[in-house]
Specification:
Helices cover 36% and strands 23% of the residues. A 6-stranded antiparallel sheet has the order 2-3-1-4-6-5. The longest helix has 23 residues. It is elongated and about 70 Å long. The chain is α+β, with helices and mostly antiparallel strands. It starts with 14 loop residues before the first strand and ends with a helix. It contains 10 helices and 12 strands.
């Protein structure tokens, strides 16, 4: 069979599908306000651009169409990412412009052809386009596909994608391909007071796997120890919470064991002045969110003259405090 030749501007109109792996932020940039950006890309390139559903940290963007339509769509994506980089740099002290990076998802059976004998093909691509090209050594989870990362200036990326398309057309995938499907975001799990919580929206809720275990443990609970003794009422809360005062509130419900101590205590943190803004957020939105999610009271001291740090006092149950601390550190 005669190998397919693609002319420089894709004079050959073969329909091709290329899959890209993107982070949520990149997808947001491609979609644009009310979907305007992706709509414009579809109209101007003539390619079909589909974005996988689901609240995953990674999404798959599928571009299908004649080769020249695909190149146009790629060019628009590469220039959009460059624009995002330039915009983000206007607020940062960095002077050198980072390259645009795209990640293609390619059937593993075609990766050998992309790499070439002894790496000859990939080396030729790097040299002729000026883009950096890397083929991942491992397949993406639960699939027979690998990630191919291309980075460089938009022009270099477009030339490189054209060459990759030629290779993919000349050596179609062998056998069945199991496409990579990104997994939904698993909310962070926070351990606090011997219990696991996951964050959902504004609230921390007990982690599902933990619920049945917690229920069993709560049912086996021995009655609470007399006031002032610090025997934990829940396995896993050793050592007893710090800052303990002896005013333990006794609870008599079967779930009393879920939080070993419902006593209120306070904890102090020092945060560098230059980071305090991230924690407070615009007009206090972030700090209010942290207060709401953790259920703790959070006070931020005024800036002291000559000090490079601000004191934060967190008050609440040990569980609320550790949740608030986690959220502050995460910021």
């Amino acid at each position: 069979m005669e190998p397919i030749k693609v002319q420089s501007e894709g004079g050959l109109n073969v329909t091709l599908t290329i899959r890209l792996l993107m982070h949520g932020k990149e997808v947001g940039s491609i979609i644009g306000k009310k979907g305007e950006t992706v709509k414009k890309m579809r109209e101007e390139s003539g390619a079909r651009i589909n974005i996988s559903e689901g609240n995953c940290p990674e999404r798959i963007v599928t571009i299908t169409g004649p080769t020249d339509a695909i190149f146009k769509a790629f060019a628009m994506i590469a220039y959009k990412f460059e624009e995002d980089i330039i915009n983000s740099m206007s607020n940062s002290p960095a002077t050198s412009k980072p390259p645009v990076t795209l990640r293609l998802v390619v059937p593993a059976s075609q990766c050998g052809s992309l790499i070439g004998k002894g790496g000859s093909k990939i080396k030729e691509m790097r040299e002729s386009t000026g883009a950096q090209v890397q083929v991942a050594g491992d397949m993406l989870p639960n699939s027979t596909e690998r990630a191919v990362t291309i980075s460089g200036a938009p022009e270099a990326i477009i030339q490189c994608v054209k060459q990759i398309c030629v290779v993919m057309l000349e050596s179609p995938p062998k056998g069945a391909t199991i496409p990579y499907r990104p997994k939904p975001a698993s909310a962070p799990v926070i351990f606090s007071g011997g219990q696991a919580y996951t964050i959902q929206g504004q609230y921390a809720i007990p982690h599902p796997d933990q619920l049945s275990k917690l229920h069993q443990l709560a049912m086996q609970q021995t009655p609470f120890t007399p006031l002032g003794q610090t025997t934990p009422a829940f396995p896993g809360t050793y050592p007893p919470p710090r800052h303990s005062t002896t005013t333990t509130t006794t609870l008599s419900s079967p779930t009393a064991g879920l939080d070993a101590s419902n006593q209120t205590s306070s904890h102090e943190l020092s945060i560098p002045n230059d980071l305090i803004g991230c924690i407070i957020g615009r007009q206090g939105t972030k700090i209010n969110e942290i207060r709401q999610m953790s259920g703790a009271q959070i006070k931020i001291a005024n800036a002291m003259e000559g000090s490079s740090e601000r004191q934060i006092t967190i008050t609440g149950t040990p569980a609320n405090i550790s949740l608030a601390q986690y959220l502050i550190n995460a910021r």
